[in-house]
Amino acid sequence: MSENQNPQPDASHEVTVAPEAGNAVVPADRFTDPGVPEHKPRLTDTDPRAAKRAERTVTLLFVLSILGTVGSIVAYVLVPPDGTTGGVRLSTLLIGLGLAVSLLGIGVAGIHWAKTLMGDREFVQERHTLATQGEARETAIRDMNEGLVDSGVVGRRGVLKGAFFGALALFPLAIAVPLIGSVGGDWNVSSFKHTMWKRGTRLAIDPSGRPIKASDVTVGSVFHVIPETTEEFRESHEWVTEKSKAVVLMVRLNPEDLRTDQSPEGETWSHEGIVAYSKICTHVGCPVALYEQQTHHLLCPCHQSTFDIADSAKVVFGPANRRLPQLPITVDDEGYLVAQDDFAEPIGPSFWERLK
Description:
Elements: E1 15-17, E2 25-27, H1 43-46, H2 48-78, H3 85-116, H4 134-151, H5 158-182, E3 203-205, E4 222-227, H6 231-234, H7 237-246, E5 248-252, E6 274-278, E7 290-292, E8 297-299, E9 306-308, E10 314-317, E11 329-331, E12 337-339
Helix pairs in contact: 2-3, 2-5, 3-5
């Protein structure tokens, strides 16, 4: 053999080509199967008392979840929103706490169960074509049954099993009961066609209720507006509903910046550059309250629908498909801003009786 010839590799130095490495060769024994690591028993595997404590802990967590579900249903029934801000907050808080405890109980119980009681051994199943013969089916069924028994669901730990299924079965009630209870609510969509605004109603600052004079509104200023009403009515149950439909955003522009400020009939709906529009987005009803002074755009923070208040609040961007309803305004003999009438079109998002 000449000096330029390479010697043949010895059988004890087998090589294999790594596809990801191109033409590189590496020793074959570098990729030996490490096998399944040795199982390290947990305290609950060796100490029956520790296993019993873990079982009690998991059971108590599931019971806590059940109590949270029951508590949210009780709160929904016994503490309904009474129309006041405090009442709505209290009802929402109690229902939310009940749901939080219910979900947290199920989640923490499941994690603790898996870490302390369920089997944690690693098993290897050789990859091969599964046949449909009786022996293969019997093996699969046996493996499934062994897994169920090892998880502690079947056979032993009856109290834990009852708490587990009880928590899972009751939790949907915390969502279903409020949904079922709302079916009998007010579905009269015609109520969205009219608000508290009427001819002569003064525009007032939200939330103080102080009437606004036109002289108080400077160019570029923004006011959150509600209809002027009595203090007694603002403390009533009806006020929350009526206010939610009547809220308005008012801005003063330079009159020359207004591209249009008239109704389809040609009536002027603004006063010396002061315009007022419904704050309720025509997409899904979020509050439109972000004003860009340089562009005269109103932005909805929920889905970024953008309206141009210099051009009848027409949609310039986003998913909303119609403009914000405009509140026609003027001034009274004392210089206060007042409504000429109610909105000329329904406020809020489109619904099945109003597609555009």
